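Researcher: Can you fold this with flavin-adenine dinucleotide in place?
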Amino acid sequence: MRISEILKTKSTISFEVFPPKNKSGDLSSIYNTIKGLAELNPDFISVTYGAGGSTKGKTVDIASHIKKEYGIESVAHLTCISSSKEDVKNMCEELIQGGVENILALRGDRPVEEEFDESQMELKYASELNDYINEQFPNTFCLSGACYPEVHSEAECFEEDLKALKAKVDAGAEYLVSQVFFDNNYFYRLVKEARKIGITVPILAGIMPIMNSKSLLRTSKMCGCSIPYQLSTMIESYYHYPSAMKEIGINYATNQIVDLITNGVDGIHVYTMNKPEIAKAIFDSIPTVLKEWNHE
Ligand code: FAD
């Protein structure tokens, strides 16, 4: 089923997982993760695509497994920065064979270590990737795109980033998933301004429960999201207490989610970091809020 069809009937709860980084190709650890997440009855689970397509085959296998083994809709991420049109076409064909109908179409991050020759890119932006997939596979996939509450790092300003977002939606993104943020006000600003320029598709909020100070700093640097004073103070105070850090991360994410639901968010997308127990702790702590939101 297309995620856009689910979103017509309800606000969604979804999870993101990433393929294991082992060289052996063993997927048993991620399949255990998915088993744990499936018990939480999400509307869909998305599977990332390693930088430069490094986890290509695994992404297809995992997304297909989610759908076939649990009957849960899956979304395969697909990036075009290091892929030719032919690569994209092949990946789409594999997804069709694997029964996956949903793609989060992304440009992907510029490789940092190596020299990157942009002129080699056959598809420059996510919007071009959308156009290409829809041209090659008409009416086959439900496409979605990424959005950035605190502005994408390469964009000149918020307004330019918003224009690019509109182009991505006009090229076929049927819903959007946000980058991580720790201050809900950035998300509310994005939704408000997006609606003003005619972006009407559902916008799902990306929430990442922070488990330690290292991961908080890494996420903030990688994703360009700011750390609110209140969160940084709590993290500094409990720096040496891993279990307290975990409690703070779960509580902070839970509070963000309750606030988002209260403010009518279209969906919550949890970056699970392959830890089902953390997602469980969050959702187990707000059963009544979820029930009122049509998620039991
Ligand atoms: P685009 O939408 O193409 O935008 C990239 C930049 O170009 C932006 O600054 C934008 O403002 C600008 N731009 C876009 N169109 C135009 C235009 N027509 N003219 C001028 N400027 C334009 N990365 C991975 O490698 N694998 C993943 O699985 C993955 N999953 C992600 C999931 C989510 C929910 C999010 C938010 C990000 C994910 N990323 C992933 C990271 C993503 O690939 C990077 O943030 C990347 O730098 C941008 O991708 P994009 O699709 O948003 O790019």
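Model: Folded with flavin-adenine dinucleotide in place. The chain has a mean pLDDT of 94.
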